[in-house]
Amino acid sequence: MWWSWSSVALAQWVLDWSEDFDRYDLEPFSGTDGWVCDYPNDAWSTVGTGGVRSLDDFNTSNCGGLVWGTGGCNSDHLVQTGRVYGDFALEVTMTTEGGNDDGAGVVFRYQSDSEYYVVMWSRDKLPLPTNEPTGNYDNTGHEGRVYSIHNGVGRVIATMDDPTYEIGQPHGVRVTAVGNRFDVFLDVDRDGTYTGPDEHPFSFVDGDHPDPGHVGFMVWTNRTAFDDLRILVPPPPEHTGLPPLDHTGAPTGHSAAPSSPQTGDTGEPVDGTTSPVEVAPVLRWPRPGDPGCGCSSTGSRSWMIQILGLLAIRRSVRRQRT
Fold it and tell me: Taking the CB of residue 53, how many other CB atoms lie within 10 A of it?
C-alpha cells in the first residue's frame, strides 16, 4: 500500500491553539476559562510553578472508590471543555513531581466522565480497567497504558513495560489522532524529538470514541505539572494538494495502510501482539512495481509521451484559433 495517513508530515499541520498558563496565577484553577476537573477533591493550580499542576496525591482507600465516571479518584482529569477536536496532534510537557510515582498522562476525545481515551505512565500503581469500589488497583511497577473509558467501564487497549521517564524532569508527550487511528509518543531522552528507542510506544486503531471531543490531562494518586500545550490540526486539503481524509484517515478514494503495533529496538511489539511494525512510506505518486500501480517503466514512459503529445496538439489548436 503506497499511502498511509502517518506519511503526512506534521510540518504541514496548522497550529490551532497553544497554552502555557503563564497568564494565570490561580488556586483553585478548575472552573477557569473552560478548564474543569471532575474530581471535587483536586482543584488544580497555576500558582508557584510553570504550567498547571494537580494538587491532591490522594489515598486510594478514601477517595470515593476506583469507579470510572462517578467523580471519584478515577476522575482526576483537568479537561478543556471549551474546545473540541477530532483529528489533531496534541503536544505538551509533563513533569512528575519528586516523590510521586503513580499515574500521569493525557485525555483525548473526551465526551464526558464516562466516555474518553486516556494514556498514562506510572512507576508504581495504575487503576484497574474494571470498576473497583473497594479501592483495588494494579501494582504495575514501571508501565504505560492506554485506556478507553466507554459507558463508564474501562478497557486497556495497549500497554508498555518500563517507560524510562525521569521523575522531576520535563518530558514531551505527543498524541496524534486521525479518524480511528491513534499514535502516542514520549520524549524519553528529553531531546525535543520523538525518534529515539521506545519513544513511539503506542500505535492503535479503535472505534470506541469516533466523534470529536475535548482534550486535557489526567493524574492518578500523583502530583504532576503540564506546560506548553499545543494543538495542531490538519490543514484544509486545498492547502496541501492532498485529497481529503475519510473516517479511516486515508484520502478519499484510497485505502489506509493496515494498523500495526509499534515496536522497540528488538522488533518485538510493546503491546503483547506478534505483528511487526509497518513503516509508513513517504507520500508520493505510484511508481512501477507499487501494488495496484498497473504500470511499468516502459508503460510510464509511454504514458508520459502520450500526455506530452496531447499538450502539443492543444497548443497547436490554440495557435490556429488565434
Answer: 25
Residue 257 CA to residue 6 CA, distance in Å, equals: 9
- Give me 199's grid cell: 519513544
Map residue 317 onto helix, strand or coil: helix
Asked whether the beta carbons of 58 and 127 are under 8 A apart, the reply is no
Answer yes or no: CATH 3.40.50.880 is held by domain 5-239.
no
**Distance, C-alpha 206 to centroid of its chain:** 12
- What secondary structure does DSSP assign to 116-161, as a single string? EEEEEEESSEE--SS-BTT---EE-SSEEEEEEEETTEEEEEEEEE
Q: Cβ(206)–Cβ(157) under 8 Å? A: yes
C-alpha grid cell for residue 95? Answer: 513533569
Nearby residues of 310 by Cβ (< 8 Å), 6 or more positions away: none
Residue ranges, comma separated, of all CATH 2.60.120.560 domains in the chain are: 5-239
- Look at residue 118 and tell me whether its pLDDT is greater than 70: yes
Q: Taking 60 as the threshold, does the pLDDT of residue 1 lie above it?
A: no
pLDDT per residue as tens digits for the range 242-291? 555 444 444 433 333 333 334 333 333 334 333 333 333 333 334 444 44
Please, what's the largest Cα pairwise distance for the chain? 89
pLDDT at 316: 56
Q: Give the residue carrying C-alpha cell 473497594.
A: 134
* Closest by CA position to 103, among listed 71, 133, 61, 73: 73
